[in-house]
Amino acid sequence: MKKVHIDASKSYDVLIGAGLMREVGPRVKSLLDPAACMLAADDRVYELYGESVSRNLENAKIRTVTFTFPHGEQSKNLTTYKALLETMCERQITRTDIVVALGGGVTGDMAGFAAASYQRGIRFVQVPTTLLAMVDSSVGGKTAVDLDGGKNMVGAFCQPSLVLCDTDTLETLPPEEYACGCAEVIKYAMIESEDFFRNLEEKPISEQAEEVIATSVGMKRDYVTRDEFDTGDRIFLNFGHTFGHAIEARSGFSILHGQGVAMGMAAITRAAVKRGLCAPEVEARLTALLKQYALPTEVPYTADELISAALSDKKARGETIRLVVPEKIGRCRVETIPKESLKTWMREGGIA
Ligand SMILES: NC(=O)c1ccc[n+]([C@@H]2O[C@H](COP(=O)([O-])OP(=O)(O)OC[C@H]3O[C@@H](n4cnc5c(N)ncnc54)[C@H](O)[C@@H]3O)[C@@H](O)[C@H]2O)c1
């Protein structure tokens, strides 16, 4: 088992290893000692793991109330969020109780936001079951739901009390969901470390999942520690996301988050090469690595179709928008551009 300790406004451990799900109850009991817990999971994850986690919590003498909802990004909205809060209220979850988010980033973001806001904030534990949630969304304290007008438009910063990544759960993850997690791992390598990038080229992530998760979480920890509230260099974690979020939203979420991020990273890198900001070799290696992990690199929409979603991105500031642009593998920089030139960047990135 590996452990990454995070020191943000709250200190907590991220534990990574096989079989951790069987330890949820005892670990939560000894760390937080809640009388009751709201266990939130989507329908697919609940069917696979919900009952055993619930039993495990009950065996640790934690009264466990469950809330399930239809899987997928379409559920990450105010309606599901409200239903979860109403259930917490009806089932008498109190301020000393906790929320356990069991599942991928959709569950973690939405249940985390419920924990952040219910009775002005109660503690929560993340039990991520997708690679994407283990390497990224369960760590760092960004919680949110989507509005019709854009992704993650309403939420809060709220760090979990504990993150338990049971790598055994990756065995049931569908391949395209596994690939989505690989996209976020490749993002860390692009912004942070050529050595890590080379390692991903040479050895499949699936053969070194525990190490790759710990390395990725360690990289995210450093950004979160320096810039917990996203006013400075935490923006680098958004490499590929400005175009990626727009692509995901334009597809009605039939394109998955990680797939959108992969396309977004490829497109912004093509634009950077066109502008002479990085060498063509960077684009060639990134595209090859994305393909190696079964991720898409071409954007199936036009710039006209994406522009309004991209402009409502949270990285917009007044009349400008900030883009994270690669300089070389392992290093990016932030370009602040006028909003009206975003379409030109998209076209230079091969978006028609
Ligand atoms: N908060 C953050 O910092 C942050 C960072 C990155 C992404 N995100 C958010 O995360 C979300 C994407 O997360 P995701 O990719 O985990 O999506 P997800 O939560 O929708 O999970 C993907 C799918 O996999 C299924 N699933 C989950 N675990 C499984 C398992 N072990 N076996 C079989 N099926 C399983 C789910 O039912 C779902 O259908 C997006 O909403 C994105 O905005 C947040």
Ligand types: nicotinamide-adenine-dinucleotide
Quaternary: single chain
Alpha carbon gap, first and last residue: 46 Å
Strand content: 15-25%
Order of helices and strands: EEHEHEHEHEHEEEHHHHHHHEEEH
What is the 3D shape? globular
Write down the Rg. 20 Å
Care to describe what's here?
The chain is of the alpha/beta class. Helices cover 46% and strands 22% of the residues. It has helices spanning 24-32, 43-59, 78-90, 105-117, 131-137, 175-192, 194-202, 209-226, 241-250, 257-274, 280-292, 303-311, 342-348, and strands spanning 2-7, 11-17, 36-42, 63-69, 98-103, 123-128, 142-147, 150-157, 162-166, 316-317, 320-328, 331-338. The strands form three sheets. The protein has a seven-stranded mixed beta sheet with strand order 1-2-9-6-5-3-4, sandwiched between helices. The chain has a three-stranded antiparallel beta sheet with strand order 10-11-12. Strand 1 and strand 2 (11-17) form a beta hairpin. The longest helix has 18 residues, at 175-192. It starts with a strand and ends with a helix. The site of nicotinamide-adenine-dinucleotide has 31 residues, from helix 2, helix 4, helix 5, strand 8 and helix 6. Nicotinamide-adenine-dinucleotide (NAD) is lined by residues 42, 44-45, 48, 71-73, 76, 103-107, 109, 129-130, 132-133, 136-137, 140, 142, 151-152, 169, 172-173, 177, 180, 257-258.
